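Forum > Structural Biology > Help requests

Title: Can anyone predict the 3D structure of G-protein coupled receptor 26?

Hi all, first post here. I have the sequence for G-protein coupled receptor 26 but no way to get a structure on my laptop. I'd be grateful if someone could post the structure tokens.
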Amino acid sequence: MNSWDAGLAGLLVGTMGVSLLSNALVLLCLLHSADIRRQAPALFTLNLTCGNLLCTVVNMPLTLAGVVAQRQPAGDRLCRLAAFLDTFLATNSMLSMAALSIDRWVAVVFPLSYRAKMRLRDAALMVAYTWLHALTFPAAALALSWLGFHQLYASCTLCSRRPDERLRFAVFTGAFHALSFLLSFVVLCCTYFKVLKVARFHCKRIDVITMQTLVLLVDIHPSVRERCLEEQKRRRQRATKKISTFVGTFLVCFAPYVITRLLELSSAVPISSHWGVLSKCLAYSKAASDPFVYSLLRHQYRQSCKEILNRVLHRRSLRSSGLSGDSHSQNILPVSE
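Reply #1:
Sure, ran it for you. Structure tokens for G-protein coupled receptor 26 below:
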């Protein structure tokens, strides 16, 4: 194993560690906080988190073993199962992000009727659709024997070893990425563009009211006026920054792998195995970034993390005080009359 392989293996190990800890923390927050569970986005977050955890404990270790051993890391049946999960979980992750963007669009564009339009039942139907959609392509690939170990990515994933099926596999791969990556990307762009448009409209209204107030308050101190203007600027930038993060992480993590899979279909474009594994690692890194992008940086999840931490520390303090009390009582000798 050369330095490139060692670096890719280290990247995989780091991604696995961050993904496992962060997604487990999101799951703990969902189990702990009833307020979070009552909201419709909790179902999308739960679906995304469980998929990320399953990818972390099944697919990432097999890819790590493939990088280290430079060969298929498991038997054919286990590799086909891992390839089925890899295709299903990647599609489910993309569609879950699209579902979260639709939820935010409804919340921003229809704030007064959001609870009526996005109920838990509606969220459950959307999750059921994502599962049905995500299961379609791996089931078809399994029936066509297009699941197995791919040396270019050192992973159990979509692959075809028969030259006579090259054209059919190319059409299947193109359709798969069009109805998973491209579809999700279009939904993300359309919904978040509308969210950004509405958010900027509300910011302009707030800015107009603020400026009118500042004009009326003639005796206001200049420092207060400057702080109000700076807050206006931060408010406009905050929405743009959040939406850029949502769309940017999706592109950075998934686009290199999808483009590599499409270029791979053309024999005229040589692809390095190191780049193939790196693009797969970038796709895996989405599982590590999702908890921070969609959950842990929000106020409700931060509050839930604090409550969980306080409860753990409180139990430890009670346990330690109980042990010290027992030891103290054992050290007291009975006094004879």
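The chain is about 80% helix and 0% strand. The first strand starts at residue 147 and ends at 150.
Shout if anything looks off.
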